[in-house]
Design a protein that fits this description.
The protein is α/β, with parallel strands linked by helices. Helix content is 33%, strand content 22%. Strand 3 (64-68), helix 4 and strand 4 (93-97) form a beta-alpha-beta unit. Helix 3 (40-55) crosses helix 4 (79-87). The chain starts with a strand and ends with a strand.
Length: 314
């Protein structure tokens, strides 16, 4: 996580909002903001190095680097290539994944396919986003939601351990216009004529996103539970996308899983997009919230629309 903290009180001096307004509607109290010159690849690299240290392997043992991000350093080359250079993973192929907030779990599924097909043995999956670089700081409905950060995981063959048990990914392009960034791509390049229109910032229809997010994440969770032959009672910890506390409460209610079994850190970081579930997974692990043998359910939702779910035996 970047060092700089932006609190709700800080935001109230930028736009017409308050700590009470933000907290009651989102559950967010503060978020992190990348420093000037701190790029998505820099945060991704820090997360990757911590994962390598925890896995007790060298960067040269990595066969594939997947970086899930909506805010790459540049359109090309892939941000994964910058990470490869910074960590010295000279034996890895590199590519980025564009699945918005669902990107990290898309990466887990892609990594699993490469591993089970014996194409690659060791895969580094990173979720990293610098959402403050595409935030419209004059829009109080969206600027209060987002922060920066990165998280990483290393997947590989683990002998008799189960690891990833079941996964599910999905998309619905019919709703591509409720959470998107209209400018900056080939359809609408940023020019002198449109630079003041905030087209290269996040645009969101909040109520519709909420409805679709709850429905999609509940359905995705139920599917991986059924595929794994498990019930909600078997899950020791749920790590949901960290976007809005109301969404998490809605999922808990529909899945009939007590909110106490959900790991929530959005009050500290806000919505960090593809990084959110990876950061929460790392924190849950390091804090002892999840233990060896636990079943952990991860579920995410993002623009596209995209959604994904994964059950891991820790």
């Amino acid at each position: 996580m970047p060092e700089k903290i932006l609190t709700n009180e800080d935001l109230s001096r930028i736009v017409d909002t308050s700590d009470e307004w933000i907290t009651t509607r989102t559950g967010i109290k503060e978020r992190r903001v990348a420093a000037k010159g701190e790029d998505t690849s820099d945060m991704a690299t820090e997360a990757a190095l911590k994962a390598l240290e925890q896995a007790k392997i060298s960067a040269k043992e990595i066969n594939l680097i997947l970086v899930a991000t909506a805010t790459p350093d540049m359109l090309f080359p892939a941000t994964a290539c910058f990470v490869q250079k910074k960590i010295g993973a000279t034996n890895a192929a590199c590519l980025d994944i564009s699945a918005a907030c669902a990107g990290f779990l898309f990466g887990i599924e892609i990594a699993q396919q490469f591993i089970t097909s014996h194409t690659h043995d060791t895969v580094l999956v990173i979720g990293a986003d610098k959402l403050t670089s595409i935030t419209n700081w004059t829009d109080r409905n969206t600027c209060v939601l987002f922060g920066d950060g990165a998280g990483a995981a290393i997947l590989g063959h683990r002998g008799s351990a189960h690891g990833v048990i079941s996964t599910h990914i999905g998309s619905d392009g019919q709703f591509s216009d409720i959470l998107f960034m209209p400018g900056g791509g080939s359809r609408c390049p940023i020019t002198r004529d449109n630079v003041d229109l905030n087209l290269a910032t996040i645009h969101m229809t909040g109520k519709e996103v909420y409805k679709q997010a709850v429905t999609a994440m509940v359905s995705a969770s139920q599917k991986v539970l059924a595929d794994a032959g498990l019930t909600a009672d078997d899950i020791a910890c749920v790590i949901p996308h960290q976007a809005n506390l109301r969404i998490i409460e809605g999922i808990a209610d529909r899945l009939q899983i007590p909110l106490e079994r959900f790991y929530v850190n959005l009050d500290k970081y806000g919505n960090t997009s593809a990084a959110a579930v990876a950061i929460a997974l790392d924190e849950a692990n390091r804090s002892g919230r999840i233990k060896h043998g636990d079943y952990v359910l991860l579920v995410v939702f993002g623009g596209g629309l995209t959604w994904a779910s994964t059950i891991v035996e820790w």
